[in-house]
Amino acid sequence: MSENPTPVSESDSPFRSEPSARDEAPQFVLPLVVRIERADPPARADALETAARAVLTILADERSAGEGEWAGAMRDWQDARIRKVVRRARGAEWRRAEALPGITVTGKAAEVRVFPPVPLDGWPKDLARLQVSGTDLDDPQLPVDPDPSAPVLWLNPDLGMSAGKAMAQAGHAAQLAWWELSGEERAAWHDAGFPLAVRTADPAHWPGLTGSGLPLVRDAGFTEIAPGSCTVVADHPALRHEPHGTGRAVSTRSE
Question: DSSP class of residue 86?
Fold first, then answer.
């Protein structure tokens, strides 16, 4: 299991959308690559859920903690802004990506590979050449209602985001939930295989979700949407009435 990030004051939190001292630190990014073959692309909900589980998987990996081989990069990434970028690959591009150190997480049909953080301007060439655009995915069938006993990452119903953007935002929300959980709750989620769903919230319920005190992602406005937009609420059952939680909505800055 990964260690808790170093506690910081609210004024220097990596989850504030306003500029802070963390913006002066060297910036790192967590790369995620989704496999999108022309003939058989994954469903959108499957890709979003798999990306969120990929983020949780690298956070929980023993190589990300203590003296693990990825621990230094993970600390550097968390000391600055918590950036994630999703790129797409197919065929030989995917095979080259799989050859790099990382973890491939599979969903129903989706495959997402997550890599240890890299400097914002220092991507490995086999990842840097991959495109960010072209990650528009659809759900051939309407996703089923989520299990109320499992975590749900609720998307803002008023925002139109590409699948790649939404995958990064879902990953942010999953990470916020992970950081709010106790060690025992993290272990239970990990041991269960990180069950979760990603769904678009009912417009009538969205205001209540954003004011609930559950982890809330706010976007920095670098791509696609306006700065400060609320994108995802992480509704983990353990956080609904969690005595050790902060009792306030948490926000993060994203790309």
Answer: E
What CA–CA distance (Å, rounded) separates 113 from 104? 4
Provide the 8-state DSSP code for 83. E
Helices (H) and strands (E) in the chain, counts: 7, 9
How far apart (Å, rounded) are the C-alpha atoms in residues 74 and 69?
10
Query: Can you tell me the distance from the alpha carbon of 138 to that of 246, in angstroms, rounded to the nearest whole number?
Result: 36
Secondary structure percentages of the chain, helix, strand, coil, to 5: 35, 15, 50
At position 24, the amino acid (one-letter code) is E
Cα dihedral 72, 78, 80, 86 sign? positive
> In whole angstroms, what is the distance from residue 115 CA to residue 104 CA?
9
As a whole number, mean pLDDT of residues 26-43 equals 92
| 152-155 β-sheet, strand order | 197-200, 152-155, 230-235, 216-218
Give me the sign of the Cα torsion angle 232, 240, 249, 64: negative
Q: Name every residue whose Cβ is closer than 8 Å to that of residue 56 and which is 6 or more positions away in sequence.
A: 174, 175, 178, 189, 190, 194
- Express each pLDDT in 235-254 by its tens digit: 999 998 644 444 444 444 44
Residue type, 106: T
Pick from 35, 20, 12, 14: nearest CA to 90: 35
pLDDT at 14 over 50: no
Is 196:150 a contact under the CB 8 Å cutoff? yes
